[in-house]
Each structure stands twice: as C-alpha cells, then as structure tokens.
Amino acid sequence: MRRLLTLALVLALLAAGCSVGEGDDEPDLSPLTSAELGWIRAYSAWTIGIYDDERHGGPRVVAECEEEEAGLGPTPTDRLEPAAELATGICPLLAEDGTWRRALDTVDATDNLLRTLLRDEQPLELAAGVTEASRADTELSAYATDVVERPVEVRCWSTGDWRRVVVEDNAWTDSSDDPETLYGWADDTSDRIQMRLDQCNPLARLDEQATSDKSLAARREAADSLGTLAHEIQHFVLPDASESKVECAGMRSLAAVAQRLGLDRESALALADLYRAEIYPEQPDEYIEGGCPQRP
Is residue 294 included in any domain, yes or no? Predict the structure, then answer.
C-alpha cells in the first residue's frame, strides 16, 4: 500500500536538506526522463517487496535489503538524489521486528518525495464541460462520489498528459500498460478514476451525441465513453471482483449513468442496448468470459 502522508512529505523534505517555502526555487516538475523512470521502477519494485515481505527482522534481512538497494545504482539526475538519500535509511530499520514500522514509514516518506515529480500529483484544473486541456471533472466526480459513497475524483487527461500519466504509473507500479489501448483505470489508493480526455468530452456533450438522429459513430462514441466510466466506478463498488464481473456490473448500470448525466430514459436505454450489442462483444476475453445476462 502506498499512502499519501502530508506530514511525512514535509519531514522527508527537511531530512533531505530542503526547506519548504520562503523563496526557494521552483522544483523541476518537467516530465521524467527514460533513465529517471527506469530508476523509479527499480526503486518501486524493491520497496513493494519490502511491504510484501512477511519475514522477521534480522541481519540476513538487512543484508539482502542492502544488496537489493545497491542494485538500484546511482540516480541518473540530481532531482532524484534526495529520495535516494532518504532511502538509505530503510534497510538498517529491518534489523528488528520492533523497528519494521519505522522502516515502512521511511518508505512512505521516500515515496512522497518521488510522487511530487509525477504528473498525477501536480496541479490539475477543476472543471466541467468540454475542454481541450486536462481537467478533474467536477460533474463526473460528483456522480462517482454518489455511487461509491466516498469522495472520488474523475481525472480526464489530454493525449500528451495521458501518455505521461500511464508511463509514469507503469514505472511506479512496475506495470506495462499501453497508453494507446488503455482507456481508463480506477486507483483505489488515491480514490481517483483516470480517463482519457477523448472519453470524458463525449460525456460532457452526451445529449448532443446520443439522440437517434445522430450518426452511429457518434452514438457508439457516447456509449463507449459511458461504458468506461461505468466500468471504473464498479471497480470501487466491487473491489475484489474479476474484470468480467466488473464489466457486467458496469454495463448493467450504463443506462442509469446516462440518465444521471442528463439523458432521458429512452435515449439512455438505447445507448445501453447499443453498448451490449456492439461494444461489449468486442472487449478482451477477460472482460466478457462467462457472459453477462440481462437483469431479470
């Protein structure tokens, strides 16, 4: 688990020799380089292993940890150095069971230093309606919050930002998602739904795209976008369910989502039928295995 700890972030900055506020130069928040992403991926894989490790503390554990840490190599740029320096305090804290919690706190603090460099942790405009720039969509977030029954934010990313966010998340989680084929995902550690802007904008003009006199392409785009939002919301509702069960639940809720976003009942049902007939069968096998019967 990776938590955002504001106090830990401040302490980490201070521990790394950085002051907070008062005339400091602006931090370098430019996109991470390939070399930086590679170092962060290696760091993340190492610290995920520490979190998952159920062994008791002791000299052997410390030695193995230090060997893995050494395998990270030097940071490729100076802006990663404060995190690397803080991370050197992790392994010694695995010497005893009684200090393991402090080791995990140090991992959290190091994580937070690195997270400030990720696009998803940088400022994002709050807005509703069609935009050309990335936004945190207040209308979609309000609906997701109602369904999930806790605050959820729906983030909509432009093409350039989307590629950056996916690539950075791959490094952070040691994953390999393709920005070209990925439409969205639910992040239960931050209570965010990440979506492409070209999936969010059709939802902002849903009543213009969904009527029966619009082209099939426009209605498919509307249905597909609804399907993405409904699916990702269901990942929060059904956190332990398979992709196929989440997809089924999302498809069954699609008409309700459409109505909540302003469509009349007839148009909402028509989009739900279009999704079931034409889009659902095109999904990857893991999304449709076992099928999805209509509600009784």
Answer: no
The residue behind tokens 């976003």 is 261
Enumerate the β-bridge partners of residue 97: none
| pTM, 2 dp | 0.87
CA distance 169 to 178: 11
Residues 158, 187 share a domain: yes
Shared-domain flag, residues 203 and 99: no
Half-sphere exposure of 135 (CA within 13 A, CB side): 19
59, 85, 117 - which closes a domain: 117
The number of folded domains in the chain is 2
Of the CA atoms within 13 Å of residue 74, those in its CB half-sphere come to 3
Of 188, 39, 8, residue with least CA distance to 107: 8
Tell me which amino acid residue 163 is: R
Query: Is 74 within the bounds of a domain?
Result: yes
For residue 201 the two structure tokens come to 């904008």
Domain that holds residue 50: 6-117
Which among 173, 164, 153 has a CA at the least distance from the CA of 236?
153
Contact 150, 190 (CB under 8 A): no
One-character DSSP codes across 146-168: HHHTS--EEEEE-HHHHHHHHHH
**pLDDT tens digits for the chain (296 residues)?**
323 333 333 344 434 444 333 445 788 999 999 999 999 999 999 999 998 887 788 999 999 999 999 999 999 999 999 999 999 999 999 999 999 999 999 999 999 999 999 999 999 999 999 999 999 999 999 999 999 999 999 999 999 999 999 999 999 999 999 999 999 999 999 999 999 999 999 999 998 877 767 889 999 999 999 999 999 999 999 999 999 999 999 999 999 999 999 999 999 999 999 999 999 999 999 999 999 998 75
Same domain, 73 and 43: yes
Tokens of 199: 């999936």
